[in-house]
Design goal:
Blueprint lengths: L12 H18 L10 H24 L25 H17 L2 H30 L1 H9 L5
Length: 153
């Protein structure tokens, strides 16, 4: 990581999930690999709807808290309200649940297979980098928050 005032993440999370979704669609077209033979379409869409609500809530909480949403920009505050009371990464959880809901709606194991890869990249290349950055920048304030709130759920 350079001396820049940001987390130095290796990819913007929405882009990572979009690329995985595009790959899932291409692989599904080539070889469908159904999970439930179409039975999970509506539950998948329900998950997408719930996750979009979480994404909106989490984003608005960051904006109200006075910090940047984009991890390539400097963080200006540790936000501990809204969904950040329950998880240190509600936006990333929301992206994951949207992707999982689309996987169910599209009924393909490819989504699950690719999600495993996405989660590895998110954990190592985004979340761990953000945590190191926030600890360096906010010190004890961030360490106390990290000790009180789970990384995921």
């Amino acid at each position: 990581m350079t001396g820049a005032d940001n987390a130095g993440v290796i990819v913007r999370p929405p882009l990572l999930y979009a690329v995985a979704l595009a790959a899932m669609l291409a692989l599904r077209w080539l070889w469908p690999l159904p999970i439930f033979s179409g039975a999970a379409f509506w539950p998948g869409l329900a998950l997408v709807t719930l996750a979009v609500g979480l994404l909106i809530w989490g984003r608005q909480t960051l904006v109200t808290g006075g910090t940047n949403v984009d991890p390539s920009l400097p963080s200006t505050a540790v936000v501990t309200s809204g969904p950040y009371r329950f998880s240190r990464n509600p936006l990333y959880m929301g992206l994951t649940v949207v992707y999982l809901g689309l996987t169910l709606a599209l009924d393909t194991w490819w989504g699950i297979i690719l999600l495993a890869l996405v989660l590895i990249v998110m954990h190592r290349g985004v979340i761990q980098r953000e945590e190191r950055y926030l600890e360096r920048k906010f010190g004890d304030g961030y360490r106390q928050y990290r000790a009180a709130v789970r990384r995921y759920l």
